[in-house]
Task: inverse folding
């Protein structure tokens, strides 16, 4: 599984991308986040507040209940802040 | 036309490129986003825009297709920069062209509203103390829900 991390998640975890092989019981995004959180303090800190973690699987936004397969590209990042200027 | 680039862009060049040879265009609307002199914490500073290569292009193509399905547009250009940007520098350009001014103006606003909430970009603001990642604003989400309420359907 290809993992990508952006913005402060990348800094806390310490790498921008890595190839990992989660165990078979990691079936959903939530399972993956739980498994990653056990990998080290940086992961645990980055994934502590999941309300500010967004997920894309194969470059599409998904929810935490989305199923995963070993060939997936999974990206974890904070809410996006592109463009510029406030709306009002 | 969608471009994600580090380099600056020339609005005049992009405007004429978009309308060249298109004789049914009645109006062109453009939005240029600029790095504010004052950052979100009140201090002036540069910012660095990070993005997700691949997904960024994909999302902008989706947003463009959505605009094309809603308004009779003759041409659309979206240019979004990444990398380090100083205050006053241009970040983003959206141009829409149509036979009708309402279509051009509405589609331009639609595109900038949606790309703020859908395109995977993240801003890091430099401050005296080092810097901080800019938080997403709930008012940006509200700007997009306005479009959903307007036509009573999802925009993807």
Result:
């Amino acid at each position: 599984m290809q993992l990508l991390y952006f913005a402060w998640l990348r800094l806390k975890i310490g790498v921008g991308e890595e190839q990992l092989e989660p165990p078979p019981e990691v079936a959903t995004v939530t399972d993956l986040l739980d498994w990653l959180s056990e990998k080290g303090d940086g992961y645990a800190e980055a994934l502590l507040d999941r309300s500010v973690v967004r997920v894309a699987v194969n470059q599409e936004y998904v929810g935490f209940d989305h199923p995963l397969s070993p060939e997936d590209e999974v990206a974890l990042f904070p809410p996006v802040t592109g463009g510029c200027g406030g709306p009002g | 036309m969608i471009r994600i680039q580090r380099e600056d862009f020339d609005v005049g060049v992009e405007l004429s490129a978009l309308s060249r040879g298109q004789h049914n265009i009645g109006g062109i609307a453009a939005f240029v986003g600029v790095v504010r002199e004052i950052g979100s914490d009140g201090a002036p500073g540069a910012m660095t825009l990070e993005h997700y290569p691949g997904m960024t292009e994909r999302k902008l193509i989706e947003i463009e297709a959505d605009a094309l399905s809603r308004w009779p547009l003759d041409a659309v250009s979206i240019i979004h920069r990444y990398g380090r940007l100083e205050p006053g520098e241009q970040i983003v350009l959206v141009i829409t062209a149509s036979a009708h001014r309402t279509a051009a103006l509405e589609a331009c606003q639609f595109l900038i509203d949606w790309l703020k909430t859908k395109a995977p970009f993240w801003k890091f603001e430099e401050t005296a103390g080092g810097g901080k990642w800019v938080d997403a604003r709930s008012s940006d989400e509200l700007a997009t829900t306005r479009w959903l309420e307007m036509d009573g359907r999802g925009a993807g």
